[in-house]
Structures are given as structure tokens and as C-alpha cells.
From TrEMBL:
Record-linked InterPro entries: DUF4440, NTF2-like_dom_sf
Highest taxon above the source species: Eukaryota
DUF4440 domain residues: 16-120
Name of one Pfam family that matches: DUF4440
Name assigned to this protein: DUF4440 domain-containing protein
Length: 128
């Protein structure tokens, strides 16, 4: 049986994949809102800090073609357990749309909510 830290790492990796699948989808806002802590902060390149406090603004900022990619790949993934209910995932993401490349470093902090689900606390992307 895997130890608790291995299960946390697996949970965080699955959530990060779920996040990036949502980010690169045709309509990212609804699944990202579902994955997020109500007080989450999002820092995307060339955008103001986004929060869920103004959901209309959040949805508008993530309207297509925001991050609509044909494919993406996560590289150099590092998972750090902060404690049994919090962790971070850092990685490089290489994405492609119409032969145009998008390269970022990504950092997401996750916390476990009272319902046991992992929720985004912060997500940041920095272009490289």
C-alpha cells in the first residue's frame, strides 16, 4: 500500500493534469472555477491578477481563444508536499496551436478543502 505522501503526490499530479486540460479547453472557466478555492488567485502572462471574487471578469478573461491549444506537454514536474493538506506543483509547459509555440513555467498551490477535494489556491504562469 502506498504511503500517504505517495498518494498526495498522485492526487496533486492528477489535479494538475485536470487543471491544464481545463486551461487548454474550448471553455476553461467552468471547470477551473470548480477546481478552485473561492479565494484563489490566478496570474497569467500579460493579465491582471484574476480572482473568483468577480466571476464575470474571470470568465471574460478566460474566453476563447485563451490557452486554446491543439496539444500541451508538462515537463520537469516537481511536486512538493507542504503538509498533509497542501502542496505545490511546478513544471514547464510546452503547448502548440496552429504551429505557434507557447512556453511557460507553471506553479500551482493546492489545498485540501473540508470535503476532501484538492482546490487551487494560486496558479501562476511565466513565459519563457
Amino acid at each position: 500500500m502506498p504511503d500517504i505522501h505517495d498518494r498526495i503526490r498522485e492526487d496533486l499530479m492528477n489535479k494538475e493534469i485536470e487543471l491544464w486540460t481545463a486551461l487548454t479547453s474550448a471553455e476553461p472557466a467552468p471547470p477551473i472555477i470548480k477546481l478552485s478555492n473561492p479565494e484563489a488567485n490566478f496570474l497569467f502572462p500579460k493579465k491582471e491578477v484574476l480572482t473568483l471574487q468577480d466571476e464575470r471578469r474571470f470568465r471574460k478573461a478566460l474566453r476563447p481563444p485563451f490557452h486554446r491549444f491543439d496539444s500541451y506537454e508538462m515537463l520537469d514536474v516537481r511536486l512538493i508536499i507542504i503538509d498533509l493538506m497542501a502542496g505545490t506543483v511546478t513544471c514547464k509547459v510546452h503547448a502548440l496551436r496552429d504551429n505557434k509555440k507557447y512556453r511557460v513555467t507553471s506553479h500551482t498551490t493546492w489545498s485540501q478543502a473540508s470535503d476532501g477535494e484538492w482546490r487551487i489556491v494560486t496558479h501562476q504562469e511565466t513565459r519563457i
